[in-house]
Amino acid sequence: MIQRVETMTVAEFVRLYDTEGPFEIINGKAIRLSPGVFRHDVYLIRLLFRALDEFVRSHQLGEVFSEMPFVLIFDSDWVKDSRTPDVMFVKAEWLAEYQVKEPDFADKPLVIVLDLVVEVISSNDNYTDVDAKVERYLDDGVQVVWVVDPRRKTIKVQRQGTYRTLHIGDVLTGDEVIPGFEQALQAVFG
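RESULT FIELD:
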């Protein structure tokens, strides 16, 4: 596995991702992604993906993806950083523009800034690392990040400069990013 990334094209990123396995590039450092555990991967991620995807598709608001890499580029084709959130959402209008601008979009990771990112904290995650990751998402231009903590049964909704923590009994909403979406935390953590 490569350790430092000085320069890499999107095609090189895809090749390495396929041959070396999932990784992110953060500030020029390649970081291998750890496999998750049942509660993290199978249960919570799938539950949130399904709830968001069903709502978004029925209202034609955009697309929801799970554990798909997106890259940030500089110049025309050089990878600057990459991220692989647990769940992510892109508004329909941004995705349509992207597909017109990138005719080969189907053969590479998303090269677009996301509207919503969901990170589920797994048992091997460090809270300081998760906080740093959230800051990077927001600095990248992501509008909203939901940090789902299965141990505490909370969801922290973060935006640039603000956050609120939801607990059992509260309802998670899509606010202006996914208008009309609502999910009771009791249903998430049941």
